[in-house]
Amino acid sequence: MKKQNSIFSLVLIGIFVLYMIIPIIATYMFSIATKWDVSILPEGYTLDWYQTAFDHPYFSITLTNSFIVSFSAVLAGLFFIVPTTYWVHTRVPSAKPLLDLLMILPFGIPAVVLALALIRVYNFQPVARSPFLLISGCVIFSMPFMYRPVSNSLMAIDVHTLTESALNLGANTFQILVRVIAPNIMPGILSGALLVFATVFAEFTLANLITGASFKTFPLLLVEFTKRDGRVAAALSVISFTVAWIASLAILWVSGRGHKPTEEVVAAH
User: Fold this and answer.
1) What is the pTM of this model?
2) Which residue, 24, 99, 207, 246, shows the most beta carbons closer than 10 Å to its own?
3) Structural domain boundaries of the chain?
């Protein structure tokens, strides 16, 4: 019976993996196909669509703009969410249910509604339809992705004992947060940063409605080519996937390097 259950689980996992990976493989193949409308495999292969994407005058501009918005949203999330979450967990735990509720709201507010609300409220210069307003909207939209990993990491450690010990040693609140708490919740911080980066980098609705062509991001260029040439759009999608994977690997690498000293300290103790 256990063997049958194990085989059944493996089959389900295999089906799920195929369901997730086949569209990605198909996108990669379509991005290098000269023609693909007769057989199950492309009739020829070429890198011309990538060359077309790279040669587009807005390619580097939109990619840079997306990086600016994504990294700005990550930094803003770290600056606002991490201290607030730590403060609620240690000083005002009664406010945690309210904070949990506030962090759920972005999931229930459509991006279209959020963008139109920001445009209507902040309709004065120099904020109106500016990159700053776009970044602010992305921070609001991505707050839950930063908050939940950080909150779970704080609940996994004895944050009160660490705080009291640091206070007894003469540390102030800033030193406690940066030098004591942050290293202990680094996996949660890195997970949140990765989720925020991936979410904001692929965000189309907010960028389209708030800044539009005045500050064009990478998803806008991708959608533009979707209407003109699907093969170039597939190449741009592959580039987007690759950027997200490189960012993920970089964060995992940093996380691995950050864990080594902790393991050495534990072994020494």
Assistant:
1) 0.82
2) 207
3) 1-46, 57-268
